[in-house]
Amino acid sequence: MAEYVNSNLTKSTRLENGITYSYIFVQAAQHKPYILFLHGFPSSAYDWRRQVPFFQDAGYGVIAPDLLGYGGTDKPTELERYSLKSMSNDIASLLDHLDIKEVVAVGHDWGSFLLSRLANYHPDRISAYAFLDVGYKPPLGRFDVDEINDETERTLGYPIFGYWHFFNSPDGADIMTDNPATSRALYSADPQTLLHHLCPVGAARRFYEEKQTRPLPAWLPDDEALTHSRIFGAGNGGYRGGCNWYKAQMGNVNAADEEAVPAERRRIAKPALLVTCADDYVAAPAMQEGQMREFADRMEVREVQAGHWVQLEKAEEVNGILKGFLERVCV
User: Fold this and answer.
1) Residue 3 has what pLDDT?
2) Do residues 255 and 143 touch, judged by C-beta distance below 8 A?
3) Which is the most buried residue in 91, 142, 161, 255, by most CB within 10 A?
């Protein structure tokens, strides 16, 4: 089951394809829409713990799944199961199971990548989009992480995806699992931890080999950090499922599907919100906004003074931004 402070809200469903998804579910009040929350790496539905009660109290329905490879959801080993089209189909099937036709969808980090493909493959299921930290990513076909790192080295002065090679390595996920204190440092109070220890090629492996740690921020108390570590414990599959998203992308599992997306499906015509994070060096705000503006017809942008984990660090501000967006677009 999905980890959450209120176990009464956690559900589990086996889809027609045989994959079991765990998720947090809140019934919507009359005339209120459902919000679909899609987490990133290394997260789970638990990382929406400051959004779920807020929107529940406001009458909104909530669906927050542990995405494939995470938490209480199945963790297949076949990389093809981690194609963004396959996982988009899973989400659509979950909505079918819940008899929910349309949602407002919120994505963070890899959840924003998945939300982007829901926009391409299942646009009829989404009434409006909210991208936190990472904006809409158009389907581009072939993916080359080294090309991206070379480009951002030129434009930003540093590579943004150096850590992908470590996550893609045969032993990377197990090293992360075996070093929970170092893995918790990804939530460091200092946003430059990501800049210096994830972005450069080779830095992430050194960070783990040296078993480095960092003080946790005030917004991540010890009990919550330990819950996160338990979700990613060896007995629950560790980080292997999450790293499979990187392996699939770097192995170009998504390439053929993305090349087949027709031009009219590459744009977002419905209302879209981008919340950028001023202190995130991996998802640099100017880069996220610039990439998304080319493809979003009705786009709003709000910047928050926060690092990568904006929904936790600035929960009250983010909740207010999302609620205002919902009130404008859900009429």
Assistant:
1) 59
2) yes
3) 91
